């Protein structure tokens, strides 16, 4: 193998596939990135056997070949090069030689024959999503997925496609986020799957930086392939049935409170400093005098009561919520104003953006 490529392209490719490397791999080759020169392109792959990320770019390939190189080492090294052009070649004893104008470096690797095969996805269903829309949907849902692996179906993001609409849903049973997306092209029938939340988080880092206009999604029975420009991410799917969540989303509310997202965030951050001592429990009390009181009971470190201006429709109401769950959603929404809906102290609180109907977030109330 011998080739010339740009340092910038090389660094970007390494950073992209690095997202599939896990810190607790048992097989040494899984800590490595597969680098393969073929035709006029340089290909990169990394996997932790649950997700695999591949990408490629055009290079001046003089001779073909492949090797796997420790991911952390080569990524750190290439990021410190200042040359625009670098030369890669295979050295003696399974090593990669990297030459720049001022240095020659040899990094020892493992044979590409030991690298696991990246699975091919035989698509039963496929659809495309506008990259920017998908990027927003990931940010607004994935944080709600459970980090507890005792219920695997809750540790993923539920994808449900019906005609021209995709619903993305995540829940940990204490809060739930649902985002609706209009697909580029309508698809026949309806189908669904559960994608691990880690897959979706890593995909979000790729879509966030991508200049590609759309994400192509291909589904098989137990795997999914996301293609964003020259980047491909393959992941296993989570088996099981996602909860029938729509039944717990309140259809009506006794009280609707319109509030500035920025104002509420600031008040919540202050009150939550004291609520930490009380399992993040805060009380929201909305009254028709145009104000909502946000408070916490007195704790070891003190207490806080703060008011925020609101526009209210309906009756006076109050509810106790986990402040962190409320702050989480306010962190990821970019809207100026939100609506907070309440019915009674045992019904979930509902948060929606004022100017769009494609998103809903619910938080289960705390018992006081």
Task: Report what the structure shows.
With 368 residues, the chain is α+β, with helices and mostly antiparallel strands. It has 3 domains: 2-114, DNA Polymerase III, subunit A, domain 2 (DNA Polymerase III, Chain A, domain 2, Roll), CATH 3.10.150; 125-246, Roll (DNA Polymerase III, Chain A, domain 2); 250-363, DNA Polymerase III, Chain A, domain 2. It has 6 helices and 25 strands. It has helices at 7-17, 71-79, 131-141, 197-209, 261-275, 323-332, and strands at 2-6, 32-38, 41-47, 51-58, 60-63, 65-70, 85-91, 95-99, 104-108, 125-130, 156-162, 165-171, 175-182, 190-196, 214-219, 223-228, 231-236, 255-260, 281-287, 291-295, 305-314, 317-322, 337-342, 349-353, 359-363. The strands form 3 sheets. It has a 12-stranded antiparallel sheet with strand order 14-11-12-13-25-24-23-18-21-20-19-22. An 8-stranded antiparallel sheet has the order 6-2-3-4-17-16-15-10. It is elongated, with a radius of gyration of 25 Å.
Write the layout of secondary structure elements.
Elements: E1 2-6, H1 7-17, E2 32-38, E3 41-47, E4 51-58, E5 60-63, E6 65-70, H2 71-79, E7 85-91, E8 95-99, E9 104-108, E10 125-130, H3 131-141, E11 156-162, E12 165-171, E13 175-182, E14 190-196, H4 197-209, E15 214-219, E16 223-228, E17 231-236, E18 255-260, H5 261-275, E19 281-287, E20 291-295, E21 305-314, E22 317-322, H6 323-332, E23 337-342, E24 349-353, E25 359-363
Antiparallel strand pairs: 1-5, 1-7, 2-3, 2-6, 3-4, 4-17, 7-8, 8-9, 10-15, 11-12, 11-14, 12-13, 13-25, 15-16, 16-17, 18-21, 18-23, 19-20, 19-22, 20-21, 23-24, 24-25
Helix pairs in contact: 1-2, 3-4, 5-6
